[in-house]
Write a structure and sequence with these properties.
Layout: H1 2-11, E1 13-15, E2 19-21, H2 23-27, H3 32-45, E3 53-57, H4 62-72, E4 76-79, E5 91-98, E6 103-110, E7 119-127, H5 131-142, E8 146-156, H6 161-167, E9 172-182, E10 185-188
Parallel strand pairs: 3-4, 3-7, 7-8, 8-9
Antiparallel strand pairs: 1-2, 5-6, 9-10
Helix pairs in contact: 3-4
The chain binds guanosine-5'-monophosphate.
Length: 189
């Protein structure tokens, strides 16, 4: 997706040679037009699948998931990183180690939102070590629903997430794949 790659080149900031800051269009300020184009691209890539729900994790996966859900006319569910007071005990949970925060979270969604008849597309903003996506996939499996694939906005291909998920048999579609950060520049695959 050239538009996304150009935006990463112009607006992305590399931190500690391992993290990409894209606060101006994805992680804090959100560019709705770009999010819609990303949603359209996910829909194009998964057009042969009958998707009934989109599953993401709060908070940065939500915007792009909503755009995708809007096009497909399916609900979007986001896993919580902390249990809200109003959520009951009837929840699916998975443990996820956060690469950016250096801590483990138990993510959860209420059981009522995933049924065995569902075909689920997982979407997230970044793929690094694959922890978040694997936790979401685990929740889909607990619900005995079908996982059609994992859509990622930015994959850092120099980290093991994509390989791990592909080896586990999941279809991973990443719209921008970063090979390396070289001399302060983003190098794509
Ligand atoms: P993983 O679970 O694959 O190790 O990491 C993915 C999660 O960590 C994403 O949900 C994202 O929030 C965060 N993350 C990982 N790497 C980056 C990065 O380079 N930049 C930003 N902004 N978030 C990242």
């Amino acid at each position: 997706m050239d538009l996304l790659k150009q935006r990463i080149q112009t607006d992305g900031l590399i931190l500690n040679n391992s993290l990409l800051k894209v606060d101006s269009f994805l992680n804090q300020q959100i560019d709705p037009e770009l999010m819609m184009k990303i949603g359209e691209e996910f829909v194009r890539r998964f057009k042969d699948e009958k998707i009934t729900k989109i599953l993401t994790i709060e908070s940065s996966g939500i915007a792009v998931s909503v755009m995708t859900g809007l096009i497909l006319k399916v609900p979007v569910i986001f896993a919580r990183k902390r249990k809200p007071k109003v959520t009951g005990d009837d929840v699916y949970t998975a443990k996820v180690y956060s690469y950016t925060k250096g801590e483990s979270n138990t993510i959860m969604i209420s059981k009522q939102f995933l049924q065995p008849e569902d075909s689920v597309l997982i979407i997230d903003d970044f793929l690094a070590n694959g922890e978040a996506a694997a936790g979401l996939a685990n929740i889909v499996e607990q619900a005995n629903a079908k996982l059609v694939g994992i859509g990622i906005v930015i994959e850092k291909s120099f980290q093991p997430g994509a390989q791990k998920l592909t080896a586990a048999g999941y279809r991973v579609e990443s719209l921008a794949r970063i090979k390396a950060f070289t001399n302060g520049q983003v190098e794509f695959m």
